[in-house]
Design a protein that fits this description.
2 domains; 4 strands; elongated
């Protein structure tokens, strides 16, 4: 199952190649041209169709993922507010220290020092909330098991798994038959792109993951987000915020809802494809999908802190007074993403340090605690300097006496004379350097948070994360002799690495060969042409428009290899059997 960006990438390529593919087919050319015109006239409807599987997933989900993401986005915004506040404190205090005789210097200094205490209190609250959220995310409750892994009959599957594993090509065909407006036809075309994207994209994910989603749900989520983020960068496709606006239809001018003509097609197609199932709440799915995209847009890193002005940083010896924060390794990630669509050479080794346990959740809590202590120490030292005393961190820590909320010895106000004392080269250099250190640590907190949220599959890896071996492993298919690997009961702690579990029998050929990038399924041309989303979509479209049907629904999870038909276990068989015995389902079977 693909995510938003990969789906949009496939849909773009299918639309771009439509005219040339059917240029020589006189029997279908007029219909294809009319369909292309409808897509161009109603691009938002096509976009909605292109992610209809995700809308359906949201409609039938328990809402846990969206709830976790809401909490994470709220904390991220609070962190950004802290960061901006610290930026302002630095600007005001540094300006005062650079020119302590200016008319507003004392006011700026007092405002900055006063805000430091409030900043410390906010950081303490943020730390408590962040730890609670980390504990809620850590079991990965948003990544639910596939019922097939527990031998649950398909009639008891939820909508997401039924959509991917049963009758989806029939669903797409019915959308075309039911479309009565140009917008509904554009939507049907988008759904065709969604179908073909899943056929080929899930096969690619299975190749880089080591097996299908049902057996490797944690690793599959990590891979699909990586591939989507990479394709969005390569294609310059709309970001999550723009996608939310594209699919956010408000037919009555109120809340988000599926337009009536599209809804009629959806209801007809879903009933025709899955007559035994109750209809999903399509409007709820749309509302949640829009909100999901809006929340994903929140997670942007702040700019790196600007170092102190040279006049301050070089104004005195900073090696011996405020050394609590000195010498920190800020571990600022660096790296680049290939711009030619290729990944080659050794990109590094994935290890246990890339797991969710080590990815930054605990690091964030430590950083926030250090920041609160660092702020208290800085306030204490400012108080010392304003009274003409030296600042010894040992004296400060001696005053803590085990208290969780030490008195930082706040200076009440800063006078002109005290500001002049603070502007002494040694004191000014310490103050400016430590403020910079605090802001750098807060930036590192964002880095730790992004690493944790990305490795748990809640957000996309950004450019800095995408350059690491953890994510690069999914951007080129490995050499595999056999496929697929069985589920690993301990995968929740090891899914960052390629599975080493036994191979499910009978094993099959890997869905993609070695050294393929995501262009192999999402690009306009593939080294293995039959594994391109464009090829699959055009084949199905030609059949729908001509009425010559093969009547075969493909398994969109690529459970048993590329283009495997929908299947079920043979009577009396179990998914845990040493050798699987499966039966291909007829076209009408749910």
């Amino acid at each position: 199952m693909l995510e938003y960006h990969a789906h949009i990438g496939v849909l773009q390529q299918v639309r771009a190649s439509l005219a040339t593919t059917f240029a020589g087919n006189l029997a279908l050319k007029a219909k294809v041209d009319a369909l292309g015109a409808a897509v161009d006239a109603e691009p938002d409807a096509a976009t909605l169709g292109g992610i209809i599987d995700l809308v359906l997933d949201h409609a039938a989900s328990d809402g846990v993922e969206l709830q976790l993401l809401e909490q994470a986005a709220s904390l991220w915004r609070q962190g950004l507010a802290l960061y901006d506040q610290l930026t302002g404190i630095r600007a005001g205090l540094e300006a005062s220290l650079l020119d302590p005789s200016s008319p507003d210097a004392v006011d700026k200094a007092n405002a900055a020092v006063g805000q430091l205490g409030a900043l410390r209190a906010s950081a303490l609250v943020l730390n408590a909330d962040a730890q609670a959220l980390h504990a809620a995310i850590d079991p990965l409750p948003h990544l639910t098991a596939h019922p097939r892994q527990s031998d649950i009959p398909s009639k008891h599957w939820g909508w997401r798994d039924a959509f991917l594993g049963r009758r989806t090509e029939a669903f797409v065909e019915q959308l075309f038959h039911a479309a009565r407006t140009e917008r509904a036809r554009a939507f049907a075309f988008g759904a065709l792109g969604c179908y073909s994207g899943n056929v080929v994209g899930s096969a690619y994910l299975g190749a880089v993951v080591g097996g299908p989603r049902r057996a490797h749900r944690y690793r599959d989520r990590l891979a699909r987000n990586t591939v989507g983020a990479w394709l969005q960068t390569q294609l310059g496709a709309p970001d999550c915020g723009a996608l939310a606006r594209h699919i956010g239809f408000r037919p009555m001018g109120l809340g988000y809802a599926i337009p009536a003509d599209i809804l009629a097609s959806l209801q007809h197609a879903a009933t025709a494809a899955w007559p035994s199932r109750s209809a999903p709440d399509w409007d709820l799915g749309l509302q949640r999908a829009v909100r999901h995209l809006e929340l994903l847009q929140v997670f942007r890193r702040p700019d790196l802190p600007v170092p102190p002005a040279p006049e301050l940083a070089q104004g005195g010896d900073v090696t011996g007074t405020l050394n609590f924060l000195s010498g920190q390794d800020y571990n600022v990630p660096t790296g680049t993403i290939d711009t030619d669509g290729s990944t080659s050479g050794q990109v590094g080794t994935v290890s246990s340090s890339d797991s969710k346990t080590s990815s930054g959740g605990a690091c964030l809590a430590i950083l926030l605690i250090l920041i609160t202590i660092g702020i208290a120490l800085l306030i204490y030292c400012i108080g010392q300097w304003t009274t003409g005393k030296t600042c010894d961190p040992a004296d400060f820590f001696n005053t803590l006496q085990g208290s969780e909320a030490p008195d930082p010895r706040d200076p009440n106000t800063v006078t002109q004379q005290q500001l002049l004392s603070m502007a002494d080269p040694t004191a000014a250099a310490h103050i400016s350097q430590e403020l910079f250190s605090l802001q750098m640590m807060l930036w590192q907190g964002f880095d730790a948070s992004a690493a944790f949220l990305a490795v748990t599959g809640l957000i996309y890896p950004d450019d800095l994360l995408l350059a690491s071996p953890l994510y690069q492993q999914f951007l080129a298919t490995p050499v595999r002799a056999v496929w697929p690997h069985r589920e690993d009961p301990g995968a929740i702690d090891t899914y960052q690495s390629d599975p080493v579990s036994a191979v499910e029998q009978p094993n099959v050929e890997p869905p993609f060969g070695a050294y393929e990038t995501p262009w192999a399924f999402a690009g306009p041309w593939s080294p293995q042409a039959q594994r391109s989303g464009v090829t699959v979509a055009h084949r199905v479209l030609a059949q729908i428009l001509s009425g010559a049907r093969e009547e075969q629904n493909l398994d969109l999870d690529a459970d048993r290899g590329f283009r495997h038909p929908c299947w079920e276990l043979a009577a009396g068989a179990s998914i845990q059997d040493p050798v699987l015995t499966v039966e291909v389902l007829p076209y009408g079977a749910e």
